[in-house]
Hints:
Layout: E1 9-17, H1 24-29, E2 35-42, H2 49-55, E3 59-62, H3 68-77, E4 83-88, E5 91-92, H4 95-107, E6 115-121, E7 136-144, E8 166-168, E9 174-175, H5 181-198, H6 203-206, H7 213-224, H8 231-252, H9 257-266
Parallel strand pairs: 1-2, 1-4, 2-3, 6-8
Antiparallel strand pairs: 4-7, 5-9, 6-7
Helix pairs in contact: 5-8, 5-9, 7-8
Amino acid sequence: MPGPGETRLPVTCAIIARDEEDRIGRCIASVIDLVDDVVVVDSGSLDRTVAVAQEFGARVFHNQWPGYGPQKRFAEDQARNDWILSLDADEWLPPETQAEIASYFGGGRLSGRDGVYFRIPTVYPGKEKPRPFAGYHAHVRLYDRRRRRIPDSLVHDAIDYDPKTMFEARHPIHHQSIRSLAHLVEKNVAYFHLQAVEAPRSKLATLPRLLVEPLAVFLKYYVLRRHFTGGLFGLRYALTIAQLRTYRLAVLAGFFRERTEAARRTLGAGPVAEPSGDAP
Length: 280
């Protein structure tokens, strides 16, 4: 990354946030000496998120909650640069990733490219780095907004990876998506109701899945995503995710309609918590 006195990268780090005073500082601190512009779009925080973001050097904008894609597109529109580094408030760049991104701009690696794809492993609450052999999800997080944009969707905010015009970074972005298992449940339940607003399903198509999917999801997370390396917390995590899958299927089938209608009313009037990176 740029050293003292060196020019920061012509990149805008775009962050959407709500009630993230305990985490957004770490996110901004990991990029503030790397890029020359940090934009935070706040959707109605009741804590010190805005003040903390400003203290760390970000430009802060308010926008009522329109859904994930539209909110991130709003953040793109506030950027001073065409290259966007899109981070969530609960994510941060470790030093090796900062250095790798800096090397792209010094070595012409991005010439003719649309974006860069990053592995994003989950860091457990109270930890500073991922568990051994941690599973991960992966997304395009560094991209040229002249060529690519975040989808205009309530719940989908991922840019499709194109191997012809993009490449995968060697180093990851760290993600501490939850503060506790109770927070995991809270975030995903709110997200499921927003999904039901955008894409409701029929009971006939959804209810039979309850017979097999919760167990399959537990095995997927505990074994394939290797939460077994996380000890007792990893076991509890996988069990919670499986239980959440049961709830999600019920919501999409039309149960809990009052909560789904409440989620509909939040659009334009207030924020909905971002989902876990391991959303089931």
